[in-house]
Amino acid sequence: MTESLRSFVGMVSQPLRVGIVGTGYAAKMRATAFKADPRSQLVAITGRTPASTIALSQEFDITVSASWMDLVERPDLDLIMICTVNRDHGQIARHALEQGKHVVVEYPLSLDPQEADALITLAQKHNKLLHVEHIELLGGLHNAIKASLDRIGRVFYVRYVTINPQHPAPAKWTYQPSLFGFPMTGALSRLHRFTDLFGTVKSVNCRAQYWDIEPDLYQACFCHAQLTFNQDILGESIYGKGEVFWQSDNTFTLYGEEGTLIFTPEQGQLIQKDRIETIEVGSRRGLFIKDTEMVLDYLYQGTPLYVSPEASLYTLKVAESARLSSVSGEIVKIDS
After folding, report:
1. How confident is the model over 275-299, as pLDDT tens digits?
2. Suppose 297 and one of 100, 160, 252, 303 were both cysteines; which one would form an S-S bond, judging by CB atoms 3.0 to 4.6 Å apart?
3. Are strands 217-229 and 201-214 parallel, antiparallel or unpaired?
4. For residue 12, what pLDDT is reported?
5. Where are the beta strands (DSSP E) in 22-121?
6. Residue 305 region, left (φ>0) first, then alpha (ψ -120 to 50), else beta?
7. Looking at residue 11, what is its pLDDT?
8. What are residue 3's phi and psi, to 5 degrees?
9. Residue 21's beta-bridge partner residues?
10. pLDDT score of 264
């Protein structure tokens, strides 16, 4: 924690004043958390869709700002919560930090790893919090995997599949490459589970396919990334969504020399020799609220956060290597 943040901890006589950029599900969960916590005062909101922005402002009895620029430049705000399209994360975070605001942003910090790196440096320069949300690390699935790993001995192969059929595919920003980014970047949690569990990556081999409706809108995408970790573990991340899929799949499988672990969001199984043991998986509910509470705990009490922006940046670099591999058709080596 920097000296400026140390001075903030325990010395705040008024609630932390918060502005939110975004009006989707994450923004609503954040607004709920900030509104319920006496340590924060939800002041203003802005969004890309006027009707949604007005509706959310009325629900939480807060002011509407005309644009994210207007919101970020308000002198009566201490923290900016960024929950908008991925493309704009880096630009908004930069301006907020330059305005002397703390920043919390839903992953990814930026679609460009170089910009993300510069933002971390900028936050350090201005002694402001820059927190990148990775609630996948807080959920029951990830914690159950971590708690079970030592039961299967040396891990040598892991496979994470998330397939989401949509009929019809929604005409929304998550299906627009310019706004969502490369699939493994926009859905960064798929790779971040891997790097949190198994560390640094030696190389990436990736293929991506799109079913386009128009130049910047697709009805389906499929992305397959093969990662070789420096621990000599082979990992596969498979991500797909849209109209070409007919069966959903959300399975995390880990192969070890002494057993196999198979997890879904609902439960896990440990398979060893002739026995199968069921593993309980905790709830996925309330994670945005939990993340928000942890941010406030950090700012007010100095309680360490569960993830660093540097860790998110590293995974972002792995995702960018996957994108480069998909473009070139070649294996991309990563300098550890």
Report:
1. 999 999 988 889 999 999 999 999 9
2. 303
3. antiparallel
4. 52
5. 40-46, 63-64, 79-82, 102-106
6. beta
7. 46
8. -60, -40
9. 46, 82
10. 96
Cβ-contact 308, 290 below 8 angstroms: no
Task: Give residue 335's pLDDT.
Answer: 84
CA distance 310 to 105: 14
How many Cβ atoms are within 10 Å of 212's Cβ, its own excluded?
A: 12
β-strand pairing of 267-272 with 275-280: antiparallel
Render pLDDT for 224-252 as a digit per residue (tens, 0 to 9): 999 999 999 999 999 999 999 999 999 99
Give the count of beta carbons closer than 10 Å to the beta carbon of residue 328.
Answer: 10
Beta strands across the sheet bearing 102-106: 63-64, 40-46, 16-21, 79-82, 102-106, 130-133
Residue stretches of the chain with pLDDT short of 50: 1, 3-4, 7, 10-11
Which pLDDT score is estimated for 283? 86
| Token pair of 4 as six digits | 């400026």
User: 228 pairs with which residues across the strands?
Assistant: 203, 234
d(CA 309, CA 36): 26
Q: Confirm if 190 and 239 have CB atoms less than 8 A apart.
A: yes
> How many whole angstroms separate alpha carbon 106 and alpha carbon 258?
37
Residue 234 and residue 231: Cα distance in Å, rounded? 9
The dihedral of CA 313, 129, 305, 76: what is its sign?
negative
Taking the alpha carbons at both ends of the chain, their separation in whole angstroms is 25
Q: Count Cβ atoms within 10 A of the Cβ of residue 63 and give its class: 0-12 exposed, 13-18 middle, 19 or more buried.
A: middle
179 is written with which tokens?
């706004």
Give the CA radius of gyration of the chain: 20
What are the tokens at 286?
Answer: 């309330």
* Distances in whole angstroms, Cα of residue 97 to Cα of each of 87, 121, 144, 227: 17, 11, 36, 34
Name the residue type at position 49.
T
Select from 177, 262, 184, 248 the least CA-distant residue to 212.
177
